Amino acid sequence: MLDKVRIKEQEVDSFKISNQEDLEKFRLAYISTKGEIASLFSEFRNVPVEEKKAFGIELNKLKSKAESKFKGAATALSEEATSSADTTIDLSLPSIPHQLGSRHPLSIVKNRIVDIFSRIGFGLSEGPEIEDDWHNFTALNFPPDHPAREMQDTFFIDQDSQKALRTHTSSVQIRILENIQPPVRTLAIGRVYRNEAISARAHCIFHQVEGFYVDKKVSFKDLKQTLLYFAQQFFGPKTKIRLRPSYFPFTEPSAELDIYWGLKTEADYKITKGTGWLEIGGAGMIDPNVMKNCNIDPDEYAGFAFGMGIERMAMLKYGIKDLRLFTENDVRFLRQFTSLDLA
Questions:
Q1: Inside any domain, residue 93
Q2: Which of 166, 207, 211 shows the shortest CA–CA distance to 307?
Q3: Do 188 and 68 reside in the same domain of the chain?
Q4: Residues 78 and 129 in one domain
Q5: Dmax of the chain from CA atoms?
Q6: How far apart are CA 258 and CA 228, in angstroms?
Q7: Taking Cα atoms as reference points, which of 144, 198, 216 lies closest to residue 311?
Q8: How does strand 123-125 pair with strand 184-193?
C-alpha cells in the first residue's frame, strides 16, 4: 500500500501546471473529493494494522504536498493574469460613462405644481390609498345613493363596501381637517383609482392634486385669484381662466376651471371643440356640511378647494395625445423629458 502512495507522490511532483485548464485537471485528479488521494484515504481501512501508522503519515504528506502545489500554482497564475492585464489597460483613459435616466413627465409636472403653490403658503400632505367610506364619500357629503358609490366607478376591496381604493385625493382633506384646526392651507397629491375602461383619454389609475384653504373670511375671490396665479405660472403669464358653474357634493358653489387654449391650429380646434377654452379641473367653496363633519364651525370658518389631474396637465404642457404612454415605461418616450424645463 505504501508503494501506491509513493507512486502518486511522483505523479504529483511531475504534473506540469502551465494554465488554468491544467490547474483544474490537477484539482480534479488529486484534490477533489473524488480524486485519487481521496480514494487512498478510503482504502485506509484495508491496510494491515502494523502498516497503518506509516501509511497514514505518508498519505498525509502526499495530501499536503498536493494542496500546497495547487495553491502555489493558483497564486502564480493569478499574478500572471494581473500582470498581463496591467500591460493592456491605459489607466489614463477616461472611464466609460454611465447612461443617465430621466425624470418621469408626471414627476416633473407634480414638482412644478408643488413649487408654484409653495410660493403662496401651501404645504404638502399625504393620505392612504385604501380608504374607508367615511373619508372617501360620507364626510365629503356624498348622498347614500350617489352613483360614485356603485361598482362601476369604485374599486371596493371588501364585501360590505366599507373599504375601497380612493377615488380622489379629497379624502386627504377630511383627514387633515379632522386633526388640524384652521387656518390650514395645503396640497394633497397622489394616485387615485376609478373603475374605467383604459383608452387614450382615460385610465383606471391616475394622479390628482387636491388643494384647499380654510380660514376666517376666505371667499370665492380668494379661490379665483389663487387659480389665476397658478394658471399664469404654469402655462404662461398671459393665460386667461374662466369659472363655469358646476356641481360637486363637497363644494358649494362649485365651478369647472377652464383656461383659454386658443384656436391657432387645427389641433387647438379639436382639443377645445372649437371654443378655444379647455377644462383643467374643478373647484369651489367647501360645503358647510363637510366643515361640520370635520368638527369645524362653518359660521366662523370658510374655505375653498380645487382639484386637477396631473396627467391632464402633463398632456397639455407637452402635447401628449395618449394617456397610456405614462404607464407603459417605454424608454423611447421617457428619454424625451431629460432636458425639458417647466420653469
A1: no
A2: 211
A3: no
A4: no
A5: 111
A6: 10
A7: 198
A8: parallel
How much of the chain is helix, strand and coil, in % rounded to 5? 45, 20, 35
* Neighbour-count burial for 247-266, b at 16+ CB within 10 Å, e otherwise: ebbbbeebbbbbbbbeeeee
Owning domain of residue 67: 2-84
For residue 126, the one-letter residue type is E
Terminal alpha carbon distance of the chain: 88
Give the model confidence (pLDDT) of 52-90 as tens digits: 788 778 878 888 888 888 888 888 888 776 665 555 667
Q: Which has the minimum average pLDDT: 24-28, 55-59, 129-133?
A: 55-59
Task: Give CA–CA dist 198/268, Å, rounded.
Answer: 24
What does pLDDT average to over the chain?
Answer: 86
Asked if residue 142 and residue 208 are part of one domain, the reply reads yes
CATH of the domain at 192: 3.30.930.10
Claim to verify: residue 79 and residue 125 sit in the same structural domain: no
Question: For residue 262, what pLDDT band results from cuts at 50, 70 and 90?
Answer: confident
Q: How many domains does the chain have?
A: 2
Q: Distance between CA 124 and CA 118 in Å, rounded?
A: 8
pLDDT band at 343 (very low <50, low <70, confident <90, very high): very low
Band of residue 172 on the pLDDT scale cut at 50, 70, 90: very high
Grid cell at residue 134: 367615511
